[in-house]
TrEMBL record:
This is Protein GlcT. InterPro entries: BglG_antiterminators, HTH_11, PRD, PRD_sf, PTrfase/Anion_transptr, PTS_EIIA_type-2_dom, WH-like_DNA-bd_sf, WH_DNA-bd_sf. It comes from Paenibacillus nuruki. Residues 287-394 form the PRD domain. GO terms for biological process: regulation of DNA-templated transcription. Residues 478-621 form the PTS EIIA type-2 domain. Keywords: Repeat.
Length: 621
C-alpha cells in the first residue's frame, strides 16, 4: 500500500469518525482534491475489507468500520519490488528489512522473499548491479548507476494509464519523491520541449520519458549522478541527443538541477530505445564507426544473400537498416529496455520477415557481443519487410487454362483482373498448350481437368466451371489464400499428439518426422523469441536448414493446450527451411496468418481426425 494511503487512513481514523473535507486532505498531502477522490476510490476498491470511506458532497469524507484487517495482496510482487528498489534508491546508506517492511506495510518475511527474488532476477540477467546484504546493517543496491535507474524504470508499468491521466500516474508512482505541483511542472516542461520538435508521441511514450527524467532528477539531487565508471561518453550527434539536451537544459534553468553530458547521453539513449523519430538514414558520427559498420554490413550482406535479397535494388533500404542497427547499439549495450507496442502484431502479420529478423539478430549478437531483445527484433522486422517487398514481384503469378473455347478463357481473365488486382496473369492457354506454361507460375486456374497434374511446378491448381459463376469467384478467392499448405504438407507429416510441455512436443515431433538433428536448433530459435502467433497456434522452426528441396511443414494437433511462450497453443506448424534458403516463402506464412484470423478455424481443426479432413477444413469458407 502506498504511503499516502496509509497516512490518509490514519488521519481519518484520528478524526474519530467525524467528516474531513476534501480540501483539508488535499492541503495536508499537497495534492489536488481530484487526487484525493481517486485515492479514496482506490482504497475502497482494493484495500478495505471491514471498513469503508464514505463521502458527502458538503461535509467531506468519513471512515466507517474496522481497520484491523486491511487487505494486502501478498501475490502483488511487482508493485512491492518497485517500492523496494525505489526505497533503496531514495538513500545512499543501508536500510534494514524491518524498516522496509514498516514502510511498505508488509511482513519482514514477505520483504525478505521479495529481495531474494529480485536478487535472482538481477543475477539471471547478468546485470552490473547487486543487492549487498550485511548482518546488522541491512541491504543496499550497488553497481552501475545506469542499470540501477533502468531496473526501477522496468518496474513501472504504463497499464495505470488505462484508469488515470498521465500526471496522476506520475503522482501515483513518485508522489513521495515530488509533490503534485512539482510533478505537473516537470511533465509540462517535457511536453513543451517535445512539442518544439514536432514529435507525435503516444501517452505511453511521454509517460516513459517523464518517469526516466523524474528518476534522474531524484538521483542527481541525492548526489548520485551518472559518472565515467557507469557510461562512456560516445560523442554521438544523433537528433535524440539534441532533444535530450533541450529537455534537461530547460529543467536545469527552472529547477537549478545540475545535469551534465552523462545525463544528456543517458536520456538521449532512452529516446533512441523508444524509437520516437521517423525512420530515416541519418549520418553516423562516432569513434570506431568504420569498424562497427563493417561488421554490421557483413552480417546484413550474409543474411541478405542467404535469403535472396537483391542488393542493387535495395541499396537505400540496406543503408536504412544499417543506420538503425548502428544507432540502436548504443542503448542496447547498456541494456536500455526497448519499447515496442506493436510487437504482437508484427510477429503475427509479418511472420516470414520476423523469422529472418531473428536470424539477423542472432548473427549480430554473436558478432557484436550484445543482447538483442524481442522488441528490437520487431523493429528489425519492419526493415526486413520493406526489403522483401522491394525485392520481389508482390502480385501473384497466375496462368489460365481453358478447354476449347478461347472466349471462356478471355471472360475468366477479365473477371479475375476486375476482382483480384493483386494477381498478374502471365499466360492464357488452351488445355493442349499446357506445355508452353512459363516457369515460376504459382497458381493455375482452369476450366477443365488437367492430366498429370503432378508434373506441373505450380503450387496451386483451382478448377472452375466454364460459366464463371459468383461461386467460382469465391472459390478462387479462398483457394488463392489456402492452396499453398497442400503443396508443402504431406499426409505423412500430420500428427496427433498428447504432450504437456513444448519441449516434449517438439522432441516427439522431430522424432516422428525423422529430423531429430534439428531439435536443438529449434529450441535455440524458440529461446530468441516465442513463435506463438495467437489463436492457439505456434509456428516453431530451426535456425538450420533441412535436407528438403522445398519448404517442409509438419503439423501437430495436440490433445491439450500447453503454454507456449506467454500464450497457450494446441496446433503446431513446424516448418523446416529447405537447403536453398533463397527460396522465399512469404506467401506461405501469409496464408497461415490469413486463415487463423478467423477465430473459429482453430476450433474446426481441433475436431479433425485425418489428413483429408484437415485439407477440407483448411479450404472451407
Amino acid at each position: 500500500m502506498r504511503k499516502r494511503y496509509i497516512k490518509l487512513l490514519e488521519h481519518l481514523k484520528q478524526s474519530e469518525h467525524d467528516f474531513v473535507s476534501g480540501s483539508e486532505l488535499a492541503n495536508l498531502f499537497d495534492v489536488t482534491t481530484r487526487t484525493i477522490r481517486n485515492d479514496i476510490k482506490e482504497i475502497n476498491e482494493n484495500y478495505l475489507d471491514k471498513a469503508i470511506i464514505t463521502g458527502n458532497t458538503r461535509k467531506g469524507y468519513k471512515l466507517v468500520g474496522d481497520l484491523s484487517n486491511l487487505h494486502q495482496n501478498e501475490d502483488d510482487y511487482e508493485e512491492r519490488a518497485f517500492h523496494i528498489i525505489k526505497a533503496l534508491l531514495s538513500q545512499t546508506d543501508f536500510i534494514t528489512y524491518e524498516d522496509l517492511a514498516k514502510n511498505l506495510y508488509f511482513s519482514t518475511q514477505t520483504i525478505r522473499k521479495d529481495v531474494q527474488k529480485l536478487l535472482q532476477t538481477i543475477q539471471a540477467e547478468k546485470q552490473n548491479i547487486e543487492i549487498e546484504a550485511i548482518i546488522f546493517q541491512g541491504i543496499r543496491l550497488k553497481g552501475s548507476e545506469v542499470e540501477k535507474r533502468i531496473l526501477l524504470k522496468k518496474l513501472v508499468t504504463a497499464d495505470c494509464l488505462k484508469r488515470m491521466s498521465l500526471d496522476e500516474a506520475l503522482q501515483y508512482y513518485f508522489g513521495d519523491w515530488f509533490n503534485e505541483s512539482a510533478i505537473t511542472f516537470i511533465y509540462t516542461c517535457i511536453e513543451e520541449e517535445v512539442a518544439r520538435y514536432h514529435l507525435l508521441l503516444s501517452s505511453q511514450e511521454l509517460f516513459s520519458i517523464c518517469v526516466n527524467v523524474l528518476i534522474s532528477l531524484k538521483r542527481v539531487e541525492l548526489g548520485q549522478p551518472i559518472a565515467a565508471q557507469d557510461m562512456r561518453l560516445d560523442h554521438t550527434s544523433f537528433e535524440e541527443l539534441r532533444i535530450a539536451r533541450s529537455i534537461l537544459n530547460r529543467l536545469t534553468m527552472e529547477l537549478k538541477t545540475p545535469f551534465d553530458e552523462y545525463e544528456y547521453q543517458y536520456l538521449g539513449y532512452l529516446l533512441i530505445a523508444l524509437q520516437i523519430l521517423p525512420k530515416k538514414n541519418e549520418g553516423i558520427e562516432h569513434e570506431q564507426s568504420n569498424e562497427i559498420e563493417a561488421k554490421i554490413k557483413a552480417v546484413i550482406q550474409n543474411v541478405g544473400e542467404q535469403y535472396g535479397f537483391v542488393s542493387y535494388k535495395n541499396e537505400e533500404l540496406f543503408d536504412r537498416l544499417l543506420a538503425h542497427i548502428t544507432k540502436s547499439l548504443y542503448p542496447l549495450k547498456y541494456y536500455f529496455p526497448v519499447e515496442n507496442p506493436f510487437i504482437a502484431q508484427i510477429k503475427s502479420e509479418y511472420t516470414n520477415a520476423y523469422n529472418i529478423a531473428v536470424v539477423l539478430a542472432k548473427e549480430l549478437q554473436f558478432c557484436l557481443n550484445i543482447k538483442i531483445p524481442e522488441n528490437e527484433i520487431g523493429y528489425l522486422t519492419l526493415h526486413v519487410m520493406g526489403i522483401i517487398e522491394n525485392s520481389q514481384e508482390t502480385r501473384k503469378r497466375i496462368a489460365i487454362i481453358y478447354g476449347k473455347n478461347p472466349l471462356v478463357g478471355k471472360l475468366l481473365e477479365r473477371k479475375i483482373n476486375l476482382y483480384f488486382p493483386n494477381i498478374k496473369i502471365d499466360s492464357l492457354l488452351a488445355n493442349h498448350e499446357i506445355h508452353l506454361l512459363p516457369e515460376g507460375i504459382e497458381t493455375i486456374i482452369t476450366t477443365s481437368e488437367i492430366a498429370e497434374q503432378h508434373q506441373l511446378q505450380a503450387q496451386n491448381i483451382i478448377v472452375v466451371s466454364e460459366m464463371i459463376t459468383s461461386e467460382d469467384m469465391k472459390n478462387i478467392s479462398i483457394q488463392l489464400n489456402r492452396g499453398l499448405l497442400k503443396y508443402y504438407l504431406s499426409p505423412n507429416d500430420l500428427f496427433f499428439l498428447d504432450e504437456d510441455q513444448p519441449t516434449d512436443l517438439l522432441k516427439t515431433l522431430t522424432e516422428l518426422g525423422d529430423i531429430q538433428h534439428l531439435y536443438t536448433s529449434i529450441l535455440e530459435r524458440e529461446k530468441m523469441s516465442s513463435t506463438n502467433i495467437g489463436n492457439l497456434v505456434a509456428m516453431p522452426h530451426p535456425f538450420d536448414c533441412g535436407d528438403n528441396k522445398k519448404l517442409r511443414v509438419l503439423v501437430a494437433i495436440n490433445k491439450q493446450k500447453i503454454l507456449w511462450g506467454d500464450q497457450m497453443a494446441q496446433i503446431i506448424f513446424l516448418f523446416i527451411p529447405p537447403k536453398n534458403q533463397k527460396v522465399n516463402n512469404t506467401k506461405f506464412f501469409e496464408e497461415i496468418y490469413d486463415v487463423f484470423k478467423q477465430t473459429n478455424m482453430t476450433e474446426k481443426l481441433l475436431k479433425i481426425t485425418n489428413y483429408d479432413e484437415f485439407l477440407e477444413v483448411w479450404s472451407s469458407k
